[in-house]
Write a structure and sequence with these properties.
InterPro entries: AAA+_ATPase, P-loop_NTPase, T2SS/T4SS_dom, T4SS_GSP_E_ATPase. The protein has three domains: about 5-85, no CATH class; about 90-180, Beta-Lactamase; about 190-410, Rossmann fold. Strands 9, 10, 11, 12, 13, 14, 15, 16, 17 and 18 form a ten-stranded mixed β-sheet that branches. Strands 5-4-3-8-7-6 form a six-stranded antiparallel β-sheet. A two-stranded antiparallel ribbon has the order 1-2. The chain has twelve helices and 18 strands. The protein is about 35% helix and about 25% strand.
Length: about 425
């Protein structure tokens, strides 16, 4: 809605019922005038502040509206965020307590804080406003989003991972999911202090890392797989060369000798894609001591397992799964779908001979993340099995060491 009908020069008074309506009306007024006056501010924040302040005062005069100093400053800051930042999302992106931001339309913004999902108070103006922010996010990536290309994945400058999907695939309007990452990764001490792992279990895992054990971390989305992988990687000796492979760079390794590789999606013409599988194959030519695949989700798992079997022990990866047993099923399925020719028994033996440990991490009912299982893969009587070393006790609410653990053969696991 324009505030001034230029054909009749008749002023249309805005209906301001609350702060959100005022912000929406003022937002349209200021944006229209910046576009009409062709204001070019580039990176000159002071020039932009002066222009926005002047238009806001013009708005107040036209509509004889008295905006308090504190409210004026807040509105000015939010308008500048709309123009140079990411609008209503800017404050959430700057909030260190927010882990996930989920937009299900202009009036449904949800955030996750400390494992709990809640609806935020801020709103977008409409679907076009959501789409404008999405396009601002993906513009530096050289990507586009529209009806012909309605899905996009990417990574912001601060490392946050984004996924956007718009109509016609998203029936209720543009949707945006943002996974944020801490500037300072969690430490092992913080993990123990928060009850996510015990000192004994951490010592067990760090000893396995130092002794070049191949480890797979499994868990659901947002369970803390990448966080745990970051922490365990700190115990890799500084003399070793690490090559990481990810779809969107999330790992924050503190090691000194790290080569980071990232996959590339196809461009707008449908060409130029570089898959994780291609990067794993290339990594083998880069003289790595260890290879870390941020997430195994496709054919690259075959090359990853072969690398673990051919001198790159101590490598690590993550996988989406609901338990350690389910992680084995997922790996078996991915190997089968990659075109690998072999029976189910052969695939399982290949997995067990390459992989040593599975660490399963998940959420408790209160949303708190913690390690739930630490299992060793074994081959017994020519059959693959899992031997639990640690298991989360939901009665006593702690991770306990399993004494005299028995081996659960995989084809007997329900």
């Amino acid at each position: 809605m324009r505030l001034i009908d230029r054909r009749s020069s008749k002023v249309q008074l805005p209906q301001v019922d609350d702060y959100e309506n005022l912000k929406a009306t003022l937002h349209r007024f200021v944006i229209d005038r910046i576009e009409d006056d062709n204001i070019i501010y580039d990176d000159n924040e002071k020039k932009l502040e002066e222009a926005v302040g002047a238009y806001m005062r013009q708005f107040s005069r036209i509509y004889e509206m008295n905006i308090g100093r504190d409210q004026f400053d807040l509105l000015e800051k939010e308008l500048i965020n709309e123009i140079t930042g990411y609008g209503p999302l800017q404050a959430l992106l700057e909030d260190p307590d927010v882990n996930d931001i989920l937009i299900n339309g202009p009036r449904k913004i949800f955030v996750e804080r400390r494992g709990v999902l809640e609806q935020a108070q801020m709103r977008f103006l409409d679907d076009r406003h959501v789409l404008r922010v999405i396009r601002r996010m993906i513009s530096p990536l050289g990507r586009r989003i529209d009806e012909s290309s309605p899905i996009v994945d990417g990574r912001l400058a601060d490392g946050s991972r984004i996924n956007a999907i718009v109509p016609p695939l998203a029936l209720d309007g543009p949707c945006l999911s943002i996974r944020k990452f801490r500037k300072d990764p969690l430490t092992a001490q913080e993990l123990m202090a928060g009850g996510s792992i015990t000192e004994r279990a951490l010592e067990f895992l760090t000893d396995k890392v130092a002794n070049r054990t191949n480890i797979l971390i499994s868990g659901a989305t947002g369970s803390g797989k990448t966080t745990l992988l970051n922490i365990l990687s700190q115990y890799i000796p500084a003399t070793e060369r690490i090559v990481t492979i990810e779809d969107a760079a999330e790992l924050q390794l503190r090691n000194t000798h790290v080569v980071r590789l990232e996959t590339r999606p196809e461009n707008n013409e449908g060409v130029g894609e570089i898959s994780a599988r291609e990067l794993v194959k290339n990594a083998l030519r880069m003289r790595p001591d260890r290879i870390i695949v941020g997430e195994s989700r496709g054919g690259e798992v075959v090359d990853m397992l072969q690398a673990m079997n051919t001198g790159h022990s101590g490598s690590m990866s993550t996988v989406h799964a609901n338990s350690a047993e389910d992680a084995l099923t997922r790996l078996e399925m991915m190997v089968g779908m990659s075109g690998f020719k072999g029976s189910s028994e052969l695939i399982l033996k290949m997995i067990a001979s390459a992989l040593d440990m599975i660490v399963h991490i998940g959420r408790k009912p209160d949303g708190h993340r913690c390690v739930l299982q630490i299992c060793e893969l074994v081959i017994e009587n020519d059959r693959v099995g899992l031997k639990e070393h640690f298991r989360y006790d939901f009665v006593h609410k702690e991770l306990v060491e399993v004494q005299h653990a028995t081996v659960s053969l995989f084809d007997d696991v329900s």
